[in-house]
Amino acid sequence: MEVGLLGLGIMGKAISMNLLRNGFKVVVWNRTLSKCDELVAHGATVGESPAEVVKKCKITFGMLADPPAALSVVFDKGGVLEQICPGKGYIDMSTVDPETSAKISEGVTSKGGVFLEAPVSGSKQPAETGQLIILTAGEKALYDEATPALNVIGKKSFFLGQVGNGAKMKLVVNMIMGCVMNSFSEGLVLAEKSGLNPHTLLDVLDLGAVSSPLIRGKGPAMLQSNYSPSFPLKHQQKDIRLALGLGDENAISMPIAAAANETFKKARSLGLGDLDFSAVFEAVKDLQRLS
Ligand SMILES: NC(=O)C1=CN([C@@H]2O[C@H](COP(=O)(O)OP(=O)(O)OC[C@H]3O[C@@H](n4cnc5c(N)ncnc54)[C@H](OP(=O)(O)O)[C@@H]3O)[C@@H](O)[C@H]2O)C=CC1
Ligand SMILES: O=CCCC(=O)O
């Protein structure tokens, strides 16, 4: 099976490599074209534009940074819309808001193509090993057709109905994750400042109800100030911001998420946006110094 992949950031690169390893032919494109070289060395071919990738492939995936990027590769010159047509499908895995997803869906379907949104839960390592959780919505026929690829990309795919439901589910999940990371960071600071050993806190947490892959996976690195990015902090802040927008539309009060958003914004203002989202710990520490 041949598939296209637009966007070779942390996630797009890992997903492409995994597809190649599992026998898929992959046609890649990235805004910074030089990032395609490593994929070519592993057997991928390159399209000069998103449109060229769509021309070559029946199904093309997008994995872009944010709503402006996701819209740009579809609607701008050389974009997906120039070649999408009946018989071709576009699957957007970027984390975006439901409105962005709906615009892309309308654009694709207006040209006779089919659209599926498919944001993912899970980070760099699950992407490398095909263990993502895929939150799809949109055209069921495209979901069925793409199932062989989805089964390689993820350990479980959900089909959630109409376009927008995948985006909403993803934003809710990441809003929770951002709040947990923020609260965990405050707990580490509180433990240390009140005279406890934060390493012992990790041991205690790991044995109790709060134990989670997130805390187990990130805690030791955070205590070493190691924030090598799996999930960039700027994207976590974008996700909480978009989740708060969803809250606004539905008149849902989310004071905890709003507070977490402020801390992630603070972290970005400290220049931590490209580090892992666990670097919010540094912003929490900074806030204590100021108070
Ligand atoms: N990392 C993670 O753990 C996870 C991330 N996600 C989501 O997946 C998406 C990608 O994440 P990730 O791979 O980490 O992000 P990266 O920041 O590593 O990569 C972003 C990608 O988007 C491209 N891009 C940015 N702006 C534009 C633009 N204006 N036009 C075209 N391309 C653009 C970049 O191209 P270039 O190389 O030229 O800059 C790059 O390919 C995001 O929506 C993120 O929220 C979802 C689950 C997990
Ligand atoms: O959007 C990023 C999610 C990261 C994760 O689920 O670990």
TrEMBL record:
Domain 6-phosphogluconate dehydrogenase NADP-binding, first and last residues per copy: 3-161
Signal peptide (from-to): none
GO MF terms, alphabetically ordered: glyoxylate reductase (NADPH) activity; NAD binding; NADP binding
GO cellular-component term (any): cytosol
Keywords: NAD, NADP, Oxidoreductase, Stress response
Membrane-spanning residues: none
Function: Catalyzes the NADPH-dependent reduction of glyoxylate to glycolate as well as succinic semialdehyde (SSA) to gamma-hydroxybutyrate in vitro. May function in redox homeostasis and play a role in oxidative stress tolerance by detoxifying glyoxylate and SSA generated in glycolate metabolism and GABA metabolism, respectively.
Family the UniProt entry places it in: Belongs to the HIBADH-related family. NP60 subfamily.
Name of the protein this chain belongs to: 6-phosphogluconate dehydrogenase NADP-binding domain-containing protein
Native source organism of the sequence: Acer yangbiense
